[in-house]
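To assess whether ligand presence alters the predicted conformation, the chain was also submitted together with pyridoxal-5'-phosphate. Input:
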Amino acid sequence: MPDFIKKELARLKKDGLYRQLKQIGPATLVFCSNDYLGLSQHPRVKAAAIAAIAKYGFGAGASRLVSGNSPLQEELERKIANFKGRAAAIVFPTGYMANLGAISSLVDENDTVIIDRLDHASIIDACKLTKAKLQVYRHNDPAALEAILKRSAKFKKRLIVTDSVFSMDGDLAPLPEIVALARKYDALTMIDEAHATGTIGQTGRGLEEHFGLKGQVDIVMGTLSKAVGSVGGFVAGSAELINYLRNKARSFIYTTALPPAACATSLEALKIIEQEPELLRNLRMNSRFLREKVAAVFRPPYNGDLKVAATTSGSDEIPIIPIIIGDSTKTMEISRKLLERSIFVSAIRPPTVPQDQSRLRITISAVHKKEDIVCLASSLRELIPASAKRT
Ligand SMILES: *Cc1c(COP(=O)(O)O)cnc(C)c1O
């Protein structure tokens, strides 16, 4: 084995940054899944997958443009377009690939992509695939975004990309300000709705619905792997945009299509989101309940260590509750001790989050029971060091 591999692995271990896969038992309480509505386990979703496999088999066999297209893929695209209030949509095998394909085909060396400092890794990787100039603004800071836009007139196109819900902090992008700035400076807007689809807005349609800005964003990207409980990524937008991506997005053209059964599960899940609004109500009730419980353990002010209540508008709606511990090794240790009690909360460390901001990232689901949440809160009370609590 080459020396650098051994050395780098040793360094990761020393710094508390080594990553390992975990197997969890059926009795483990999971508080770090993005299956926010529990749809991956919904009986109708399971039945839809089985029926699709019976009819189509499993693998799609080729890319969409070759022989991998099926009626289910097109039906899913129509459903997503309708759900997001757009003329059309295109599906990709994953959300990661949706970002790669969309961003890399929309901008080139004459352009600039302007992103929030905390945007998801897939957005950053997409930017690395283009020759467009990458510019980064301070997290959720419209003034910093405007400063960049002001000095970017020389670029042919300006594309602003933001997460809708920031996955590690559980806060929302200031969409009204971003949309207004994009108008003022003639920029394109793109939102990544990975954590917003099915969770944010009155009926779970995402950030535009939350802010009453339906149809205002140019490019709406999302994933089917989180609240939708399936797998796959998408972009929704104008019919022209979607035709363009079908012709230009390399992560659409040069990869095998989603299995038809994956499309069937997503379709069924999106119908359930519309037909069973109580799922979203439960999710919000559970998020609020956990926030109350955590706030009772760590009353404000949070010493700047704890961001539980730091989210602004609509914080009850967001099923992501980070507890910032700081030190990576310490965070890992708390996560490990929770797991010894059959509670799984993952430790999030650099480079996923900035240095010294390692955290426990708790995610809530509509199908958590009240007693599960009580159990988590009391374990947190015992395991989190006093230094991270209020004094
Ligand atoms: C998870 C995630 C993605 C990637 O989606 P996958 O379908 O899991 O590949 C993209 N953007 C954000 C913000 C995410 O959280």
